[in-house]
Amino acid sequence: MLTSVPPFVAGPGWMILAGTGYTLASVCTRDLSADYSTAQLAFMRAVIAIFFIMPLVARKGISVMKTTVFPIHVMRACLTYGGMMCWFYAVSIIPISDYTALLYIQPIFTILLAVLILGESAGPRTWAAIAAAFAGAIIILRPGFQEINLGMLAALATGILFAGVNTCMKTLSRTDSAAVIVAYVSILMFVFSSIPAWFYWTAPTWADGPAIIGVGVFALLGQYAITRAISIADARVVQPFDFSRLITAAIIGWLAFGESSDLYTWIGALVIFCASYYVIVFERKGGH
Fold first, then answer.
1. Which of 17, 104, 201, 210 is deepest in the core (most CB within 10 A)?
2. By C-alpha distance, which of 91, 37, 67 is closest to 187?
3. CA 14 to mean position of chain CA atoms
4. What is the pLDDT of residue 79?
5. What predicted TM-score, i.e. pTM, was given to this entire model?
6. CA 189 to chain centre
């Protein structure tokens, strides 16, 4: 049973699933970006999410939406919408693997916020492992910084905004279930994205239906999985495993768009994996 899986295993497992979901959502977004605006893509993603989450709410009753931390839900939704707009814009103009590599700024800020705001502990060994993971990201990023464009800046902004999202989710998970958290962000995202989408609307075609649904379904999967990951274990434990999405992004990017990853990407990925493995082994021993 999932309940018998130790947090130091279940948390990273959910984080890896989240990375896969977000990568597949990026692929669908890239496919649609030539015909639809970023604002419309964000709105359609919210509509698909509501379509899947509302039956759950209806089945359990409206009382399931009761919460004592509604302002934090609103803050989380605002950060999510901003991050999603930056995300969709970035993957529309730069390779998915480059976007994924640049998004590695997110764990650094997530851990800083977890320590500064949530009061989580992080000892020297944990910071050493995180530093090694960051060094791996730098190895990957080195060729990309030869020419900085708006897509790269949008990817960096995505990482910072989603770090704020992770901090909100950790607080929300103390009182609300993962389903409630996802339901609130889906509803609020629908509200926030509806007006911008109205001004940049293009009538969807049936041929684009699978990709449109994919954006919503895969993003919802990633959202739910990352919510579960952060609610199960400390951010300093699960966040390094977000780096695993690089491998998924490289494989899917190559299969879908013919994108290729250079040697620096794979060397950096190996460094990051080793650092992440070190963190999970240390958590098993109860150390920091």
1. 104
2. 67
3. 12
4. 94
5. 0.75
6. 15
